[in-house]
Amino acid sequence: MLNRGQLVLNTFLKPIQNLFEQKNVPLKGWSNDQIEFLLNTLSNMDTDKDEKAARVGEREARIASDLHLKTSAGFCHGVGRSGFLTAPQPKAPGASILYELSNYLALNFLKKFGLPNVKKAIVVPLCTGMSLALCLGALRPNWSNNQLLNKRTVLVPQIDHNALIKAFDLVGVKRKVVKGKIFGDGVRIPFEDIEASLDDDCFAIISLTSFFPPREHDNIKEISKFAKKNDLVHIVINAYGVQSPEWMKLIRIGIDAGRIDAIIQSTDKNVLTPVGGAIIASPNEEIITKISQAYAGRASATPVVNFLISMLSLGIEGYQKLLEEQQINRTILKEKLEEVAKKIDEKILDVFNPVAVAMSLNNLKKDQLFALGGALYNLRVTGPRVYNPEENIFGTCCADYTTPYIVLNAAIGAKSQDIILAIERFEKAYSQVTSR
Asked: How big is the chain by its Cα radius of gyration, in Å?
């Protein structure tokens, strides 16, 4: 009986042993019990669980309620040390192991799903915009050197997103925006315009993969070659791009062709965690070390825990299945919207985007466009974007996009029923606003 019980226990523990030996995302997802066992074991290694410890520091992971243990998975000490995000924390051996494992898995995950040429990755408890600020702060020139004092400008192919704009303001760098231009239905930033915008004050350039239509991805390959030629820091915003093999291929080619210093991707958009985390990766290990050393103070372990939970629960097979479902749902979304477009005499915008689909709304008046968003909200459809050119051009990434449109996403984790139901309710909302 003991031998039989040992057999069951060994089966339960084997994936945990493999994790420590291989430091890779498991092929098959773990059970919740296995994940909880690992988290409980690691969190109980931290010194705040030591009942015999005499804790006299100002930061001892003291908590007001046991609910804090639940919301942090027991990792109340957080990760890192003051001024060095990836440094082991003597008071938190378990959290240090957790973070080290998570960073190994982040690298393995990105290598498996499109970026075999990255060398190091870290999970940071920051959103995409704050991660950009961290990268810019870490990789900016030494402004205490008078010869570099004026090197404060970043070339930015137009990105109409407040989170990213605020990142530049936070770090204190100037944005030199290269305006978007219309090509058919899509908006792109011509590479020759980027080249022409370079001046002696520039030290960095940003490029973009995933964004909302009609904005299309940047020419990552040419920008990478341009960055290498002109010694510019190059940061790629890959916000929800991991779910797209096409977008990941752009980055992979860019790394091989020229210079990419850092790639930033959100954890909630790509691996289905609660909001609050990002993965920063680089083909240069020293760059990641610089970024981790630029982080101010210790960091919350919760976004790291959330990332680890997603990786262990999904596994490689689970994530691959999600990617396949996403591609199927993107096809369903386009087909269903095309059917609606024919009924209401509109068209699907010809914009390259593996996740989202945009449809024109030329037949709606200004007040109807305004009402459509509210009608969809009242019908419990979340996430669509309705663009009215007479209200605000921000979001199109150009100055003269005159076509009103609606954007819907078939992002990773969405179900086909979500797509079908959203289209049905869009038709209802459209009917409501046009019948007034």
From this structure: 24
- How many residues would you count in the chain? 436
Q: Which CATH number fits domain 93-313: 3.40.640.10, 3.40.50.20, 3.30.70.20, 2.40.50.140?
A: 3.40.640.10
The Cα 284–Cα 262 span in angstroms is: 8
d(CA 425, CA 373): 12
Strand order of the β-sheet with 405-409 is: 356-360, 405-409, 385-387
**Rounded to two decimals, what is the model's pTM?**
0.95
Q: Which helix (H) or strand (E) holds 202?
A: strand 202-208
Token readout for 410 is 């078939």
pLDDT at 57 (0 to 100): 82
Fold classification of 318-434 is: Aspartate Aminotransferase, domain 1 (3.90.1150)
- Residues annotated as catalytic are 59, 81-82, 89, 161, 239, 269, 298
pLDDT digits (tens, 9 = 90+) for 218-250: 999 999 999 999 999 999 999 999 999 999 999
Say how far apart CA 263 and CA 122 lie, in whole Å: 11
